Every structure is written in C-alpha cells, then in structure tokens.
C-alpha cells in the first residue's frame, strides 16, 4: 500500500466546491475519488444549525471531523478505533530497546510531536490481517501500537483532576471495577502513534485482561495547534494557461465548472 502519512486539515467554513476541486488539481494530498466525493457532499449538504467545520485526513482517509459549535472536539468514529485497536499487533519494548528512553520522555510529554520516532517505529508495526482484508486499511496502516505495561506507569502519572477527559477515563474504570484506588491500580498498557503524535493510550486494570482505549488528552489540541488548515472560502483566480495545462494533464472532462467558465470566456 502506498502511504501519504501527512495529516491534513480542511477548513470547510464557507467552502465552495469549485475552490475545493481546484485545490485538488494542484496537489496530491487527496487521490481517492471516493474521498473527494465525500468532501464535496459535506460541502454541499451542510447542517445549517451546526455545520461541519473541519475534516482531518491521512493517507486518503477522512478519520476525524469537527462541528462548528464545538470545533475543538474531534469525532473519530468508533468503528475506526475498533479496527486499529483490534488489528495492530503491539510492538514489544524488547524489539525497540533503543527507543525506550525516547518513549518514556514522549509519554510524559505527550503534548509534543516527534516525527522522527513516529516514522521509524511504523516500520516495526505488524497487523493481524493483510491490508486487503481490513475495512479501513488506509487509516489502520498508519497507526503504530507499542506495549508499555512493563514501564509501570499508572493512571496517577496522568493525574489531571480538572480535565474532563481525565475524569472520563476515571469514571469508566469506576463503572467497570470495584475496590477503589484506581489511580494506582489502573496501568498504562499501550500507546498508539499516528504520524508524529501520540494519538491515544490504552489503560488496564491490574490483573484484568481488557485494554481500555482513550484518546490522548492533548491529541485534539495538537492537531489544531500544529496543522494549518486548508481553506476553500476564497475565490481562486484561475488563468487560461492553468486550465490548458490541466487539460493536457488529465483531460477536458476533469475540469471544474469554474475552469470551464474560464475556458469558454477566453475562446
């Protein structure tokens, strides 16, 4: 499978279909026609009360969306999470011993990016099924999972009592397990890396087999802080030479309505 690991963000506020397709014709960030058609649909069929504001894409796959009324919250569908959690075979620390100290530092500073480590670790990742057998291979194949239970970190190491996302993790364990002492009994078991970000963590109650996945509390903020979104609300000035170059490259049938208008007006 060909990878394009760079996460891109699309700002759909006041977006125009013609501008979006013109952007697609000038770069190769999105190659899949199905993805282009879905974005076009989202631009045209917006919810007037709470329209989609941002869309996040990697390797031709739109993995996260954010609505205008709560745009700092990114929705990653549960079926996408379920596949990479199920399909990624965790990398054991003894396989990547040289990265142990780097990972420890990154776990404690999970609001930072680490592109070099992210790219290098992906080469070690294996999956239960071949890409052709996965439902969402374009996303799952970009995820790296590392088993870190032996590091001995607990929920206390992530203690953030005023953070709603931390409270959600704590409440989940209270709901499933009795006995109290969750901050010390809940262990960090796995980390999940997407591109240069720690996307999420799995936590495990001591002596229990189930891994509970949660997004990194800083993941959403990092996507907004580190990625400059592409916008499609400005009218693009298209020249006749650009239209002719596109015809030579991909044919007349691939022209957008705006490009056809430029061609007609300059005949």
Tell me about this structure.
This protein has a four-stranded mixed beta sheet, with helices on one face. Strands 6-7-8-9 form a four-stranded antiparallel beta sheet. Helices cover 36% and strands 19% of the residues. It has helices spanning 17-25, 33-44, 78-87, 100-108, 115-122, 137-140, 164-176, 182-185, 219-226, 240-250, 257-265, and strands spanning 8-11, 52-58, 61-67, 88-89, 126-127, 143-147, 186-194, 197-205, 212-215, 230-231. The protein is an alpha+beta fold and 267 residues long. The relative contact order is 0.16. The longest helix has 13 residues, at 164-176. The chain contains eleven helices and ten strands. The protein folds into two domains: 8-72 and 227-265, no CATH class; 78-218, no CATH class.
Helix-strand layout with pairing:
Elements: E1 8-11, H1 17-25, H2 33-44, E2 52-58, E3 61-67, H3 78-87, E4 88-89, H4 100-108, H5 115-122, E5 126-127, H6 137-140, E6 143-147, H7 164-176, H8 182-185, E7 186-194, E8 197-205, E9 212-215, H9 219-226, E10 230-231, H10 240-250, H11 257-265
Parallel strand pairs: 1-10
Antiparallel strand pairs: 1-2, 2-3, 4-5, 6-7, 7-8, 8-9
Summary, kept brief:
By secondary structure, the protein is an alpha+beta fold. The protein contains eleven helices and ten strands. The chain folds into two domains: 8-72 and 227-265, no CATH class; 78-218, no CATH class.
């Amino acid at each position: 499978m060909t990878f394009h690991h760079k996460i891109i963000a699309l700002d759909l506020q006041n977006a125009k279909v013609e501008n979006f397709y013109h952007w697609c014709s000038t770069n190769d960030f999105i190659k899949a026609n199905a993805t282009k058609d879905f974005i076009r649909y989202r631009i045209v069929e917006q919810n007037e009360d709470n329209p989609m504001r941002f869309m996040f894409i990697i390797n031709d796959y739109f993995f996260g969306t954010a609505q205008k009324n709560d745009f700092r919250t990114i929705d990653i569908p549960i079926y996408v999470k379920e596949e990479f959690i199920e399909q990624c075979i965790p990398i054991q620390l003894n396989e990547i011993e040289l990265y142990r100290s780097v990972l420890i530092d990154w776990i404690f500073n999970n609001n930072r990016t680490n592109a070099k480590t992210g790219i290098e670790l992906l080469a070690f990742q294996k999956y239960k099924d071949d890409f052709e057998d996965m439902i969402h291979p374009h996303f799952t194949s970009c995820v790296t999972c590392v088993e870190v239970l032996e590091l001995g970190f607990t929920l206390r190491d992530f203690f953030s009592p005023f953070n709603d996302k931390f409270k959600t993790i704590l409440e989940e364990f209270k709901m499933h397990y009795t006995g109290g002492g969750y901050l010390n009994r809940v262990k960090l078991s796995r980390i999940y890396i997407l591109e240069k970000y720690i996307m999420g963590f799995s936590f495990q109650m001591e002596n229990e087999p189930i891994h509970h996945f949660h997004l990194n509390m800083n993941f959403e903020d990092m996507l907004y802080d580190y990625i400059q979104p592409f916008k499609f609300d400005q009218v693009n000035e298209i020249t006749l030479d650009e239209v002719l170059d596109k015809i030579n490259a991909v044919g007349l049938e691939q022209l957008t309505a705006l490009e056809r208008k430029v061609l007609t007006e300059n005949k």
